[in-house]
Design goal:
The complex is a heterodimer of chains A (about 350) and B (about 525).
Chain A (H helix, E strand, L loop, with lengths): L1 H32 L4 H4 L7 H10 L6 H13 L13 H36 L6 H13 L2 H15 L22 H7 L3 H37 L3 H8 L4 H38 L5 H10 L3 H29 L1 H5 L1
Chain B lengths: L5 H47 L4 E6 L17 H7 L4 E3 L5 E3 L2 E6 L5 E6 L13 H13 L6 H4 L3 E6 L4 E6 L6 H4 L10 H7 L1 H6 L7 E7 L3 E6 L12 E6 L3 H9 L5 E3 L3 H8 L4 E16 L8 H9 L3 H9 L27 H10 L8 E7 L7 H15 L1 E7 L5 H6 L6 E7 L5 H9 L11 H10 L5 H18 L3 E13 L2 E2 L14 E2 L1
Parallel strand pairs in B: 1-10, 1-11, 13-14, 13-15
Antiparallel strand pairs in B: 2-3, 4-5, 5-7, 6-7, 8-9, 9-10, 11-16, 12-15, 12-16, 17-18
Helix pairs in contact in B: 10-12, 15-16, 15-17, 16-17
């Protein structure tokens, strides 16, 4: 089984190479087509046209687009993604500093979305055909129609401002240190034995993670409910009833396992979308992740940084999809046989 | 009996399962409640601790991060107060913006403005204990620039030919052409003295990670896009800050800044929406202010296209009801301007008013055969979100123009693209712009706006250009200021300048936290004080 999964992962990762090349080329071309001059943007306002021309030549912008791309690709393969125009630092180091923050937030949100989605899906299925069904439908549609940034603002005002229950700026309370080992603050706090930092980091993570999680849970809810509906038409469910198994046992012991497969596929896709959803939520909660950095980059037309972040998003999504596919194989015996 | 009957064993198994479930449920509930209590308790403890430490610490909600910890690298007006906490400038400004000694004890600008002799203090040390000398001064304003480091200061100090060191405290800056505003620039954007020995020995990358200056605070902690923690420099040569630890939380979203001050997560914040200032002002425990600053909201105009016609330019100016704009977007706190200078600065004219007169605007347009039925078509560029209500204000102007016979096509541009568009002559006839000038000096207002050789100016015209260029070489302060005052009047009457409003800075703070108000909007951490 492990060998099958490893083979699948290897195949997927190999397939990711051409995908990354295409995405990087697309990103490169699209950004170059924007009416923005990277040479002019990287110079101070007082720079003359002649100075900008020199800069343009230095940056290779006077060459044909395919050649520019190949230069960029060669540099990128050597770990050089260019320098940020705004921060005047290597784009790679900026992304490296902020990516763990966003991954931590996205993972926490995904776990919440999964818990809420599966729980909500089971409840929706359980109340099918009862008076509560329209209510459950209404709640799920309501949740579905509120985007993550709106959840961000609602939760901020309710739990941060009105009830004073949770903090909503940054990663930890002022006065507490920020240990830097892996970049994942929760882990780093435990590694350095600072439980106070860990608790504070959890408190600061709750609202942004819930905002993201709430926005993505209804899709999981509805897909799970639909899958359960389908599965309940299968013969083995009827046979389980005939064997005298309780409805709870049938649902949790048999139907849920099979219904979780399409839900898992969806969760994989959702993670990619959720990852991009961190953009606005990070700005609202002053969470110092890659989304926050992307907003700066876009606002300042910082092309090298936009390109590096865009590519990083692509890599993260590809890795997640590979992981989900592997998990799918682990959970679905039919795929293992093949 | 160990085993008992099958039924007994089965029942005992069930009991064990039930017990385990109960235990697990109990444990789970206890754990959940414990965690909730822990979080709640920890929050309460944190608040109590924060309250105890309140006198010695303050938190500010700030709208933007610093672009880099090299203070010479990028001109960012919003980051200036943060840099001023960690680094020192050779000269400083008092709250009324008068130039005052700082690292430089005394200075003497030559009558021809071709050199500036300075004497530095001899009691200043960097945060690592190294003494600050003229070597550092020369390194900051000459060596780094000539050494090819990409710095914005390379442009502001490009006239510096040499800095002759006479002693550790005395030096003379020599310029390639007259630099009458050199003293003002020593207190302006990017002009912070950096440690030569430290940067050369540690390297620039290490300096950026662990920056040191001579300022009243040391940088204790920095997290990109999130937080800056400053700790009092107890060896500071000047007045010691009253608050020992200042945390600057970077909160980019204005609603989140409002929420942060409302909930007590920050003690002070700035750049919140004007309507929130009005609301906070009525709340006990908060003080809310709309402070007029040395920032001018204006229309940058071109001298060609449809604006080649002076009648159209003047009509466009007469048609704008500036008082109405101020009332609608700044609660009336933004002062309507007739010249591109703010009240209290040397270039401001108390006795000159450019009147709002739509009838006159129509008359002027009629002279050029335009009317509401046959409007002149122009373009108006504006940013959206760069400064408060920018886009809304542009829309209001479009409506005002429509009434008199100017049909404006409103285009949204990114602030970062302004200079690029201007260089390529791609800006439309008018661009709504917010012009910051922390010095208040008229050269950095009118001079830069109308100097056709500078990238700040959309106006490229020889007649006005010659007048401006002459003033750039006037060394005598009084003559120079008189020249700019005259130019301000001329430029507005000529239609080369369309100033609108004096910008305001919104500040909300806890009532028992005070700070020193500066005319240019600086909110300096070193001036914070709990009462």
């Amino acid at each position: 089984m492990i060998a099958t999964v490893v083979k699948l992962m290897a195949r997927r990762l190999l397939a990711a190479i051409p995908i990354l090349l295409v995405v990087s080329a697309l990103l490169f071309c699209v950004l170059r087509l924007l009416p923005v001059d990277p040479a002019a943007m990287s110079m101070p306002p007082t720079a003359t046209i002649a100075e900008i021309e020199v800069k343009r030549r230095e940056m290779g912008l006077d060459r044909p687009l395919p050649q520019q791309y190949l230069i960029w690709l060669n540099d990128a393969l050597h770990g050089d993604f260019g320098r940020s125009i705004v921060f005047r630092r290597e784009a790679r180091s900026l992304v490296a500093a902020t990516l763990p923050v966003t991954i931590q937030l996205a993972l926490a949100a995904m776990v919440l979305a999964a818990v809420l989605g599966v729980g909500g899906g089971l409840v929706m299925f359980h109340v099918r055909g009862t008076l509560f069904e329209p209510l459950a439908d209404f709640v799920s549609i309501l949740l579905l129609s509120i985007p993550e940034f709106l959840w961000g603002l609602i939760l901020l005002f309710v739990f941060g401002v009105a009830l004073h229950l949770l903090p909503f700026t940054g990663q930890v309370a002022p006065g507490l240190p920020l240990p830097h080992i892996t970049g994942f603050l929760l882990l780093d706090a435990l590694l350095v034995g600072r439980f106070d930092v860990f608790v504070s980091a959890c408190q600061h993570l709750i609202l942004p993670a819930v905002a993201l999680g709430l926005a993505f849970s209804p899709t999981i809810m509805r897909v799970l409910r639909s899958s359960l509906f389908d599965i309940y038409h299968e013969d083995y469910i009827e046979q389980a009833r005939l064997r005298g198994l309780s409805e709870g046992h049938i649902l949790l012991g048999h139907a849920l396992k099979n219904a979780s497969l399409p839900t898992l596929t969806l969760a994989g896709v959702q993670f990619g979308i959720l990852f991009s959803g961190t953009l606005l939520v990070e700005v609202i909660y002053s969470y110092p992740g890659m989304g926050n950095l992307m907003v700066d980059a876009v606002r300042n037309a910082d092309l090298p940084l936009i390109q590096t972040i865009g590519l990083t998003y692509c890599v993260v999504v590809l890795v997640i999809n590979t992981a989900v596919d592997s998990l799918y194989v682990l959970l679905n015996p039919k795929l293992r046989v093949r | 009996m160990l085993g008992g009957s099958a039924t007994d064993r089965a029942l005992s198994g069930v009991k064990v399962h039930i017990m385990v479930f109960k235990l697990r449920r109990r444990a789970f509930l206890q754990m959940a409640l414990g965690t909730a209590a822990g979080i709640g308790g920890s929050l309460r403890r944190a608040r109590a601790a924060a309250s105890d430490a309140a006198k010695d610490a303050a938190t500010i909600g700030w709208p933007n991060d610093v672009p880099s910890w090299d203070p010479n690298q990028r001109f960012t007006p919003d980051a200036q107060p943060i840099f001023k906490a960690v680094f020192d400038q050779p000269l400083d400004q008092d709250p009324q913006l008068k130039l005052i000694p700082h690292l430089i004890k005394s200075w003497n600008l030559a009558p021809d403005a071709m050199s500036l002799a300075v004497e530095l203090r001899d009691d200043v040390t960097f945060h690592n204990g190294d003494k600050m000398t003229t070597e550092d001064f020369r390194y900051t304003f000459l060596d780094r620039i000539k050494g090819g480091v990409k710095l914005d200061t390379a442009n502001s100090w490009k006239k510096v030919q040499d800095i002759v060191i006479e002693s550790p405290t005395k030096a003379t800056m020599n310029f390639s052409s007259p630099a009458p505003t050199a003293p003002q620039w020593l207190a302006f954007l990017g002009s912070f003295v950096v440690p030569k020995k430290y940067i050369e020995s540690q390297g620039l990358d290490n300096f950026l990670k662990n920056p040191i200056g001579t300022g009243p605070y040391k940088l204790a902690e920095y997290e990109l896009n999130s937080r800056i923690v400053l700790e009092r420099n107890d060896a500071y040569w000047g007045p010691k800050p009253k608050v020992a630890r200042v945390t600057i939380e970077i909160i980019k979203d204005p609603s989140a800044r409002v929420a942060a001050i409302q909930s007590g997560q920050v003690d002070c914040t700035l750049n919140v929406p004007v309507r929130e200032v009005e609301r906070f002002d009525k709340e006990p425990g908060f003080a809310a202010e709309l402070n007029p600053i040395t920032r001018v909201i204006l229309l940058q105009v071109r001298a060609d296209l449809a604006f080649a016609d002076q009648n159209v330019r003047l009509a466009a100016h007469h048609a704008i009801d500036k008082a109405a704009l101020s009332k609608a977007f700044y609660a009336g706190a933004a002062v309507p301007l007739s010249v591109p200078a703010t009240p209290g600065t040397p270039g401001y004219l108390n006795d000159f008013t450019f009147k709002y007169d739509p009838a006159l605007a129509k008359e002027l347009l009629a002279k050029s055969n335009f009317s509401p039925a046959n409007p002149v078509k122009i373009g108006l560029a504006a940013t959206n979100g760069q400064f408060p209500s920018d886009y809304d204000m542009a829309r209001a102007i479009v409506q005002m123009w429509k009434q008199v016979g100017i049909d404006a096509d409103l285009q949204v541009i990114e602030y970062a693209k302004y200079f690029e568009l201007n260089r390529a002559s791609k800006l439309p006839e008018a661009t709504l712009y917010s012009w910051d000038n922390g010095t208040g000096d008229p050269e950095i207002f009118t001079g830069y706006m109308l100097n056709p050789k500078m990238p700040f100016s959309a106006w490229k015209d020889e007649e006005v250009g010659q007048k401006v260029l002459k003033l750039f070489n006037v060394a005598d302060y009084d003559t120079r200021i008189a020249g700019y005052r005259e130019l301000n009047r001329f430029a507005v009457d000529y239609g080369a300048s369309v100033p609108l409003l004096q910008s305001v800075l919104t500040v909300v703070h806890k009532r028992n936290l005070t700070y020193t108000k500066y005319g240019n909007g600086w909110l300096l951490p070193q001036t914070l004080q709990w009462t």
